[in-house]
Design brief:
The protein is built from 14 helices and no strands. The chain is mainly alpha-helical and about 270 residues long.
Length: about 270
């Protein structure tokens, strides 16, 4: 029993150091430094708010739509950063993998935890923005960490899968970039799901079964407004409601098994 405890402690220390190193390197030689953690999603929010809300008048029927939009952008930014960092993590830590023998999954975890730290700063901004905007918080706010955990697990699973594939097939980075660009517009980040449900209830339900869409809507429901459509209040079949969670669990299990199988070759291939 003592040996696992020692290894667990070493792994935790290594994970912590990798996260700290990644954080320092990311903003090295940057004038604004860590402020970019908050500035990037806020700049994107400002542009989208002006174009889609002020000019196109999207979301006028949703209470506190500015907070609603900012929440979606911050969650998406975290998911995008975590998966992209996870995809590159094994190659970026190639020298370390060749020199030191340690569990390879730690490099992917470090990349995704680093993104999670960035998200924590941005979530504080969401809360402040919500208070200024007059959002009335309810008890459902305690569910937000559960949905954030679900999003992290999804990003971690994809990080394992993409990171392992990227070692052998470098084209996956370009493919994933295109997929993410398409998904940005395919999930209800900018546009409310009510725009779809008004024309096709079935299509709206299908869109909500995407785990990213499900999480976005659940966080908005719990934090911003209960007028938000979610899988829980829009889909009646209890088994269908579980599909996003099953997808997340399935991705993590398959990705972890594939990563474990491929990890023995990383030192030779990176």
């Amino acid at each position: 029993m003592k040996i696992p405890k020692v290894w667990n402690r070493k792994n935790r220390i290594l994970l912590k150091e990798l996260v700290k190193t990644d954080f320092r390197l990311r903003y090295q030689n940057s004038v604004l430094g860590y402020l970019w953690t908050v500035l990037k999603p806020m700049m994107l929010f400002t542009i989208l708010y002006i174009v889609f809300v002020q000019f196109l008048h999207i979301g006028n029927n949703i209470p506190h739509y500015a907070v609603y939009l900012l929440t979606g952008i911050v969650l998406w930014s975290f998911f995008s950063e975590a998966t992209n960092q996870g995809l590159q993590s094994v190659l970026m830590r190639g020298d370390l993998l060749r020199k030191i023998n340690f569990p390879k999954y730690i490099v992917v975890m470090a990349a995704t935890v680093s993104a999670l730290v960035n998200f924590a700063f941005n979530f504080v901004v969401i809360i402040i923005f919500a208070i200024i905007n007059g959002v009335q918080f309810s008890w459902t706010i305690i569910l937000v960490p559960v949905f954030i955990l679900e999003l992290y697990i999804l990003a971690l699973g994809l990080g394992f899968l993409l990171g392992a594939i990227n070692v052998k097939f470098r084209d996956i980075a370009s493919i994933w970039e295109v997929i993410m660009q398409g998904m940005f517009y395919a999930v209800p980040i900018i546009w409310p799901i009510t725009m779809v449900s008004a024309n096709s209830a079935l299509f709206a339900k299908i869109l909500l079964l995407n785990p990213v869409a499900q999480i976005l809507q659940d966080v908005r429901y719990s934090l911003v407004t209960h007028d938000t459509l979610t899988v829980w209040n829009y889909i009646s079949n209890p088994f269908v409601r579980l599909i996003p969670i099953i997808i997340v669990a399935g991705i993590l299990i398959v990705a972890a098994l594939y990563f474990r199988k491929r990890s023995k070759y990383f030192a030779e291939e990176v």
